[in-house]
Amino acid sequence: MSDEVGRLYDRYTDLGSVTLGENLHFGYWDSPDSTTPLDEATDRLTDLMTDRLRIGPGSRVLDLGCGTGAPGSRIAQRTGADVTGISVSHKQVELANKHAASLNLADQVRFERADAMDLPYADASFDAVIALESIIHMPDRAQVLSHVARVLRPGGRLVLTDFFERGPIPDSGRPAVERYLREFMMTMVQAEDYPPLLRGAGLWFEELTDISVPTLRRTFVELSARLTGSAPELSADYGSELVDQFNPGDLVDVQEFGHLLVVAVRPDA
């Protein structure tokens, strides 16, 4: 599964850059009528999550599913922390390291090919872990969280976002949701799954927040517009079937498709 996801992102990273921009994750808007552009809104989600990490100069941060490196580099610039980012995509790791070097952050930020379901790091080696919409690709969340708990120092913090079912997906929206999940090798959970998942991994739940309203609808609208506007170019690169079969606009009004913010802590004892 990890190798398949890696190949997926080796192929579609450029597509993500066209639609989502360099962050490759959803945006965050304070109000429905906000004029904040998507690229700035994606930075705002990174910042919202970073603030919950409670890190500073000298902290060691692990970025699970680093994308092309923009969030990890931003975290380092804002906080002074030392960041290690991982991805199962060779292409993303290469681009992420180039991005960090272009910002003169190569000594502070590094990106490596590694699997979040089998982290190659020593116990208690990180002060914080962040996972921006990456656990959606990992078939065994319990296994990922166990590895996270292992590499976190006592008192260390985990902040992640995940997709969840806010309610039963209606028949009218199910084809679009299933197509989205299938196309990008993702799964969803229910919010109530998280407290026992975290406790089973040895982590204490601190926050579960439904951030669907400030993130999903506006992002899907923006993605649909960008995808439509770039259709000729994307069809040439990826085939018309991708553009024809997947339009994020199909998910705009599926209110049962949710976006969850999770914060947990490894206890001191």
From TrEMBL:
Domain Methyltransferase type: 62-160
Key words of the record: Methyltransferase, Transferase
Family annotation (Pfam families): Methyltransf_11
Domain of life: Bacteria
InterPro entries per record: Erg6_SMT_methyltransf, Methyltransf_11, SAM-dependent_MTases_sf
Single GO MF descriptor: methyltransferase activity
One example of a Gene Ontology biological process annotation: methylation
Statement: the UniProt record of this protein carries the keyword Manganese: no
The name this protein goes by in its record: Methyltransferase domain-containing protein
Record organism: Streptomyces cathayae
Upper taxonomic lineage: Bacteria, Bacillati, Actinomycetota, Actinomycetes, Kitasatosporales
